Amino acid sequence: MTVPADWYLIVAGLLFTIGAVGVLIRRNVLVMFMCVELMLNAVNLTFITFARNLNDVGGQSVVFFVLVVAAAEVVVGLGIIVAIYRRRVGATADDLHMLKG
Amino acid sequence: MNAAYVILALPLAGFLVLLVLGRKMGEPVAGRFATAVAVVSFAAAVDTFFTLLGRSGDNRTVVQSIFAWVPVAGLHVDFALQLDPLSVTMALFITGVGSLIHLYSIGYMHRDPHYPRFFLLLNLFLFSMLCLVLADNFLFMFLGWEGVGFCSYQLVSFWFERERPPAAGKKAFVTNRVGDFGFMIAVFLVFDHFGSLNYRDVLVPLMKGTPGALATVTATGIALMFFVGAAGKSAQLPLYIWLPDAMEGPTPVSALIHAATMVTAGVYLMARLAPILHYAPDALTVIACVGALTALYAATIACGQDDIKKVLAYSTISQLGYMFLGIGAGAYTAGLFHMITHAFFKALLFLGAGSVIHGLHEQQDMKKMGGLRKWMPITFSTFVIGWLAISGIFPFAGFWSKDDILAAAYGSHGQLGKVLWAVGFLTAGLTAYYMSRQVALVFLGEARWKEAEHPAEAEEGAGLQGKPELTQHEPVAQSAGDHTQNGDHTESPGEPHEAPWPMAVPLVVLGFAAAVGGVINLPWGKWDLLTRWLEPVFPAAIAPEPHVATAVKVTLAVLTVVLCLGGLALGLLPWLRTIYHPKLEPAVLKNAWYFDEGVSAFVAGPGEELADFAAYRVDKGVIDGAVNGVAALTSLGGRALRKLQTGYVRNYALGLAGGAAALLLYVAIRAGG
Amino acid sequence: MLVAVAVPDAVVFVVAAVAIIIGAIGVVVSRNPVHAALNLVLTLFGIAVEFVNQQADFLAAVQVIVYAGAIVILFLFVIMLLGVDREENVAAEPLRGQRPTALVLAAMVIVELAVLARITDWVTGKPSTAGPLNGNGDNIAKLGQSIFTRYLFPFEITSALLVIAVIGAVVLARRPQRVASEMTLEEQEASRA
Question: How far is A87 from chain C (nearest CA, A)?
Answer without folding.
Answer: 11
